Amino acid sequence: MSDFLLVHGSCHGAWCWRDLIPALERLGHRARAIDLPGHGDAPCPVEDITLEAYGDAILAAIDTPVMLVGHSMAGFAISAAAEKAPEWIARLVYLCAYAPRNGVSLVEMRREAPRQPLLEAIEKTDDGLGFTFRDSHLLDALYHDCPDGTVEYARERLCVQAIRPQATPIRLGTNYAGVAKSYIRCSEDRAIPPEYQASMTEGWPRGDLYEMPTGHSPFFADPEGLARRLDRIARG
């Protein structure tokens, strides 16, 4: 049995893991999800949201070493947590996520991708401090292969995403380097190009790389399949 801590991506919250948590529990694992600052039930002024605050929120939720799963932009958040306190992380699992490099921000990594599928899907808030997903692009960009009702469920819960933590270069060193890592690539992803997911993990051990034939939200599209892959990762 492993203890999974699940961390959401941009504009999402703990709510997005609704179907995965019971699927992991059926396989004998403990699974929990948190809201990062400014998301879900963790309100925070957008100007106060930082990458460091994301990492601190993750560590505050850990009471025993965890399998730390980060979706999409949370690849940065879980990495920041691992750099600060690697002793609390049994393994980092990147779920169609940004796998960061030292000194580079998420915004810079996004620009490196060979395609920019989200450019038309997001819009900045009036104050320029955050962004949201355009309602007209939710289905195609995030949930195209998910069950009926997913867009409606998400629409009621999506929130503003602070830009500051994504524009902050991450600082990674020996602490982060010493933590075990796995990556789950989603081959039908329309948010982070699958080919970029592959290039971010170039040189990783083959045994630490997994793939799912889904879009950007496998926790809705195939929670049972995702749980099985996480179970395999946990069992080594």
TrEMBL record:
Annotated ranges, domain AB hydrolase-1: 4-228
Keywords from the named record: Hydrolase
Annotated EC: 3.1.1.88
Designated name of the protein: Pyrethroid hydrolase
Keyword Hydrolase assigned: yes
Gene Ontology molecular function, alphabetical: methyl indole-3-acetate esterase activity; methyl jasmonate esterase activity; trans-permethrin hydrolase activity
Pfam families: Abhydrolase_6
Superkingdom in the source lineage: Bacteria
Keyword presence, Hydrolase: yes
